[in-house]
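Two records follow; treat each independently.
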Amino acid sequence: MTRTHTVVDSPYGPLTLVATDSVLSGLYMTGQRHRPAEHTFGTPDPRPFGETVRQLDAYFAGELTHFDLPMQLVGTPFQRSVWAQLRAIPYGETRSYGDLADALGNPGASRAVGLANGRNPIGIIVPCHRVIGSSGSLTGYGGGLDRKQRLLAFERGAPDDALF
């Protein structure tokens, strides 16, 4: 297993991209909760990330609304099922933790969905920022609530402070 990483700029601060055997396995923001230790990211090497960077640039330019990248999402079966539900949330829309629990056929699992959401290893591309509280309020986000608000506003074409 070979791990490599690179750091790219974004409107939301530097993003660390991690690949395992040349497949995207991580996208981490500066100061992100549950961010792995730097030494686990492997050696610096931008080569495996060309298509990821191209799609991120198009997303931040407002030209891409759905990522199509090979990814290696490492987690428990439940976490991977939650992350699959995140990828099904359309660009510019949100779902509550309860909505995701219902979609998984386990309406009592809102809290577990929230925990799995917080452990998402590929932020932005697997859009955990699109999950909100049942009342419509912003709730926890590993990248910080300010970034979450800015990402949601961006996807809705609104000024950064227009939502919530």
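The next record belongs to a different protein.
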Amino acid sequence: MRRRTALIVIDMLNTYDHEDAAVLVRSVRKALPGVGMLLERARDASAPVIYVNDNFGRWRSHHGEILEAALAGRYSDLVEPIAPDEESLFVVKARHSAFFETPLAYLMDQLGVQRVVLCGQVTEQCVLYSALDAHIRHLDVVVALDAVAHIDASLAGAALRMMERNMSAELRASEEIIFEDVPSD
């Protein structure tokens, strides 16, 4: 039996118009190469790539508007290299978890996904809650250590330890993550 893997890119289409932006931007710059590597590897393996993004309170927005706003923002250089391609899927979220009141769990089932690779921001918030929700839905969770960004480094470290210990998440560098269907344990 083989497990299909999907890449979930969390909140990387961002305008960075919030109070923690200065700290977050520094961390995002460090995570950006890892996110880019994951996107390339997932696309090369024909694995599903799913962007899950806040709508920033714009309740009439859709993925094109969210991307346009991020690209028009002050930090478009953080968005442009990892922007969705035409094959990418997109889910809009309103809260921290990529799964909370979104169609993501249904999409995972429809795509036959049993394993998710999480990258994006913020490690101690949206990545953590998304990992928990994936775990309780019996999905295997991998977190790309070099492709997640944080606001608070100590909380991010604690969140990563919680994901590994409490959610059985694999913590790996982007270069170690494979997207081809992997054997079941």
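Discussion point: Strands lie at 2-10, 49-54, 89-93, 113-121, 140-149, 170-172, 182-183. How would you locate this feature using only the token line?
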